[in-house]
Amino acid sequence: MAETKPRIRLDKKEVRKGQIVDVKTLVSHVMETGLRKDAAGKVVPRMIINTFNCEFNGQFVFGCDLESAVSANPYFEFKFKPMESGTLKFTWIDDEGVRIEAAETITVV
After folding, report:
1. In the prediction, which pLDDT does 2 show?
2. pTM of the entire structure?
3. How many domains does the chain have?
């Protein structure tokens, strides 16, 4: 798979302690179910992102396990309350073990 740069949008990168931050992520991935056939009638092998995790300063914030029913280019939106400045680390892992990672910094004032 080619190098993928996820899109991440935080509604605020500078917040007061305990203020809610809205996080939106989108990653490009074909999310092939393994049920479709190509033009020659051969089954296209399954290739999906099966795990998504987000950590803030090493602590789990949000995550999920995905199944083949998820559409291509999975999008996630969630909220959290940072109590200190730090880094959000996002990790997507697909069936081949390929890791797509990204990070965003949040400053608490």
Report:
1. 54
2. 0.90
3. 1
